[in-house]
């Protein structure tokens, strides 16, 4: 135990000696959380709109005003010619073009039928759909007002309630995801060079002749990084709650338990990388680059896992961040109790055991 | 002199057991797998229906919703608790509650109400899903109206017809939207991370001192570090074009030449950024952390996954300094809209500035003393 203690101390000294890296490790999550918490959102607002209105009538003007004054749209251009729409789209200037009929008012009053075209730049399909929905709703709204006195027969009025996130804040979705991404990558990157560095520097041999069992060497390497990660966890959580206004609706205790478990998994994964790679460069490229993409894309952080093809859904199961993000969403956002995350805790625990065993086996192999 | 330096760099890359494989396989893997994963098509929304009415209208409505193709009915129940439980467990995304007397109210009082409850932890899914559902319901009510009332009765009431049209990506395919942008991400990662580790790697290995004692000018030295990644970048992007064409049948609507020109400038920019970071770092670990830190910010704030114009004002200001954003725009504009050089003036200017800025910085900042 005493030996273990001195090993931990040695690892601590390694970290403290490189103050710059340590500061970086502590500051990085803070800045990332603030940036992403505010900036990464799929809400659509302030979209730029072009209007082609050859009729120049009162009702089209009123509709344009309504579209412009909604928080979703800014009318930035009035076109003189419908061919300009294509041009505006090509220049990436506007996301939606509203085209009114010629003689809009006359058509509306006389034949009772007038047409509004909503032409969207569908390069981004979701934004396009959202924009046409919003603009359509604003126009329908105007029509309702026109018909105020006439009661529309056979009307079904759906009333929509948004559960868990009534204000539709992007942060509710992204905070758990960013939490998973940041913790996973930073933890894995920290430990991934821990062993391979000793290999490269030649100190590995000294390590191997020490009487300490491999498991303790590995654990000793993890302890300081674990503490560092816990500091990161608390700053990031504080930011989520006090700066981004994402509440911890469920039990803080269980949120911390599952987070620490996740940190442990990520640190072990880093160590595994460290035992299989030969150079620091390879270790960091694996942990920083090759891990980054799958975690961002397959963890459900941004893209819903259930949309993916079956094979990728299976693949996503091996990504620890996926289970962590589910657990955080359940506890933190939905406020479910701990029984809702038993499965996730079990899986993360199982992953920790497997990864640690494999890296231990790899580590032993080098001893022979 | 530069020839020897380049020879050295290439030998170092090729002799490395890991790098060449990564350079060739990473793009293929990313483009094969990730467009399928980065799918935000709102389809297969899991729907749970609470039908308290069991009338012919409520049945018709349910049929209409299911046949729309957007929704997958997970359960029909009369127990609100069960429905809520399904949402809690992520088994369904939206609950549609049809109250008892739905049909009676619709026929007698001419209006009926429905309640939609959406899980909006993911705002896009909840928002778009419930918007689709409301749309189907509105359609349903006008169908009934048309069946019951002769159009002449409501003439005199002005009706506006809204026609929607989607340009450039008429089938609203998310893959087409993601593939060109993923190429940018690829290029950024390979041509950004690798140079970032390069100079600092020589520092750590001690070979830097040997170079410093030679009479190589700073500019030539940096250039020798830059050129290999430039060539690697061209290889990577060419592989990416091929994969996009073979696997997704996707070829640019605009000119491939335009893309290569922009790629050339862009690679210089990100590699320059990598070299600057490498210059400032003492260890590879530091370089890696700093690079990763910037990379994550650059990627998540580029418009790759979430639209830039949705960001708050101050965040949009930050994205002005994000080269990734501009190149991402170029790729999507040229690939999908067929934009030409004249449409891309801003992007060209911005990317040239980055390339110039970072590389000048890299040259000036490089000291021949350790």
The unreliable regions of chain B are none
Order of helices and strands of chain B: HHEHEHEHEHEHHHHHHHH
Secondary structure: helix percent of chain B: 55-70%
Unreliable runs of chain A, pLDDT <50, ≥5 residues? none
Widest sheet: strand ordering of chain B: 2-1-3-4
**Mean of residue pLDDT of chain B?**
82
Mean pLDDT reading of chain A: 82
Question: How far apart lie the N and C ends of chain B?
Answer: 22 Å
The largest sheet of chain A, given as strand count, sense and whether it forms a barrel, is:
4 strands, mixed
Strand % of chain B is 5-15%
**Structural class assignment of chain B:** alpha/beta
Taking the alpha carbons of the first and last residues of chain A, their distance comes to: 25 Å
**Outline of chain A:** elongated
Spatial order of the strands forming the largest sheet of chain A: 2-1-3-4
Structural class estimated from helices and strands of chain A? alpha/beta
- Report the total helices of chain A: 16
| Quaternary structure | heterodimer
**How many helical stretches of chain B?**
14
Question: Biggest interface and its residues per chain?
Answer: A-B, 114 and 116 residues
Total number of β-strand segments of chain B? 5
- In percent, how helical is the residue content of chain A? 55-70%
Layout of helices and strands:
The complex is a heterodimer of chains A (368) and B (370).
Chain A lengths: L1 H16 L1 H21 L7 E6 L5 H12 L3 E7 L4 H7 L5 E5 L3 H8 L1 E9 L3 H22 L8 E9 L6 H23 L1 H8 L2 H6 L4 H30 L8 H25 L3 H11 L1 H7 L11 H7 L3 H15 L7 H26 L1
Parallel strand pairs in A: 1-2, 1-3
Antiparallel strand pairs in A: 3-4
Chain B lengths: L1 H14 L3 H19 L7 E7 L4 H12 L3 E7 L2 H9 L5 E5 L3 H8 L1 E9 L3 H26 L10 E9 L6 H32 L1 H6 L5 H31 L7 H25 L3 H17 L12 H7 L3 H15 L7 H21 L5
Helix pairs in contact in B: 1-9, 2-7, 2-9, 7-9, 7-10, 7-11, 7-13, 9-10, 9-14, 10-11, 10-13, 10-14, 13-14
């Amino acid at each position: 135990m005493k030996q273990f203690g001195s090993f931990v101390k040695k690892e601590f000294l390694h970290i403290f000696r490189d103050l710059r890296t340590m500061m970086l490790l502590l500051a990085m999550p803070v800045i990332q959380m603030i940036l992403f918490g505010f900036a990464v959102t799929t809400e659509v607002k302030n979209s730029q709109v072009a209007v082609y209105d050859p009729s120049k009538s009162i009702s089209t003007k009123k509709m344009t005003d309504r579209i412009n004054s909604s928080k979703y749209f800014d009318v930035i251009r009035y076109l003189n010619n419908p061919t300009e729409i294509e041009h505006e789209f090509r220049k990436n200037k506007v996301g939606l073009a509203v085209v009114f009929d010629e003689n809009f008012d006359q058509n509306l009053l006389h034949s009772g039928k007038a047409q509004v075209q909503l032409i969207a730049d569908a390069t981004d399909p979701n934004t396009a759909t959202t924009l046409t929905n919003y603009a359509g709703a604003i126009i329908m709204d105007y029509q309702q007002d026109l018909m105020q006195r006439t009661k529309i027969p056979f009307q079904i009025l759906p009333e929509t309630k948004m559960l868990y996130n009534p204000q539709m804040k992007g942060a509710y979705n992204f905070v758990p995801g960013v939490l998973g991404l940041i913790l996973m990558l930073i933890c894995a990157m920290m430990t991934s060079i821990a062993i391979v560095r000793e290999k490269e520097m030649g100190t590995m041999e000294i390590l191997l002749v020490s009487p300490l069992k491999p498991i303790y060497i590995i654990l000793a390497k993890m302890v300081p990084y674990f503490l560092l990660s816990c500091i990161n966890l608390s700053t990031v959580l504080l930011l989520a709650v006090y700066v981004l206004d994402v509440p911890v609706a469920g039990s803080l205790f269980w949120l911390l338990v599952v987070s620490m478990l996740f940190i442990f998994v990520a640190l072990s994964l880093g160590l595994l990388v460290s035992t299989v790679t030969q150079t620091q460069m390879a270790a960091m490229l694996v942990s920083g680059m090759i891990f980054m993409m799958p975690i961002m894309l397959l963890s459900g952080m941004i893209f819903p896992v259930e949309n993916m093809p079956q094979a990728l859904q299976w693949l996503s199961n091996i990504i620890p961040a996926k289970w962590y993000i589910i657990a955080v969403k359940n506890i933190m956002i939905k406020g479910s109790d701990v029984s809702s995350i038993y499965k996730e805790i079990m899986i993360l625990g199982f992953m920790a055991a497997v990864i640690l065993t494999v890296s231990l086996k790899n580590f032993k192999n080098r001893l022979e | 002199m530069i020839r020897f330096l380049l020879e050295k760099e290439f030998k170092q890359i090729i002799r490395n057991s890991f790098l060449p494989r990564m350079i060739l396989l990473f793009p293929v893997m990313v483009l094969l797998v990730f467009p399928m994963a980065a799918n935000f098509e709102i389809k297969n929304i899991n729907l749970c229906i609470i039908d308290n009415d069991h009338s012919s209208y409520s049945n018709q409505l349910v049929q209409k919703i299911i046949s729309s193709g957007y929704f997958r009915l997970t359960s029909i129940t009369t127990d609100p608790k069960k429905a809520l439980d399904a949402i809690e467990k992520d088994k369904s995304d939206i609950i549609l509650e049809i109250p008892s007397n739905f049909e009676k109210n619709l026929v007698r009082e001419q209006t009926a109400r429905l309640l939609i409850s959406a899980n909006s932890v993911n705002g896009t899914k909840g928002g778009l899903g419930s918007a689709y559902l409301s749309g189907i319901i509105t359609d349903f009510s006008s169908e009934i109206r048309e069946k019951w009332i002769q159009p002449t009765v409501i003439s005199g009431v002005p009706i506006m017809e809204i026609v929607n049209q989607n340009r450039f990506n008429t089938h609203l395919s998310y893959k087409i939207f993601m593939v060109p942008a993923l190429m940018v991400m690829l290029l950024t990662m390979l041509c950004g991370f690798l140079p970032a580790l390069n100079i600092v790697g020589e520092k750590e290995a001690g070979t830097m001192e040997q170079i410093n004692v030679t009479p190589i000018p700073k500019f030539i030295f940096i250039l020798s570090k830059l050129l290999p990644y430039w060539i690697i970048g061209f290889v990577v992007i060419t592989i990416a074009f091929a994969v996009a064409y073979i696997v997704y049948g996707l070829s640019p609507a605009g000119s491939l030449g335009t893309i290569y020109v922009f790629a050339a400038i862009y690679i210089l920019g990100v590699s320059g950024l990598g070299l600057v970071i490498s210059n400032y770092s003492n260890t590879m670990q530091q370089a890696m952390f700093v690079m990763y830190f910037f990379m994550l910010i650059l990627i998540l704030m580029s418009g790759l996954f979430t639209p830039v114009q949705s960001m708050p004002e101050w965040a949009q200001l930050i994205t002005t300094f994000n080269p990734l954003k501009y190149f991402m725009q170029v790729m999507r504009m040229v690939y999908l809209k067929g934009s030409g050089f004249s449409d891309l003036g801003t992007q060209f200017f911005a990317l040239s500035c980055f390339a110039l800025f970072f590389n000048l910085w890299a040259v000036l900042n490089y000291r021949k003393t350790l």
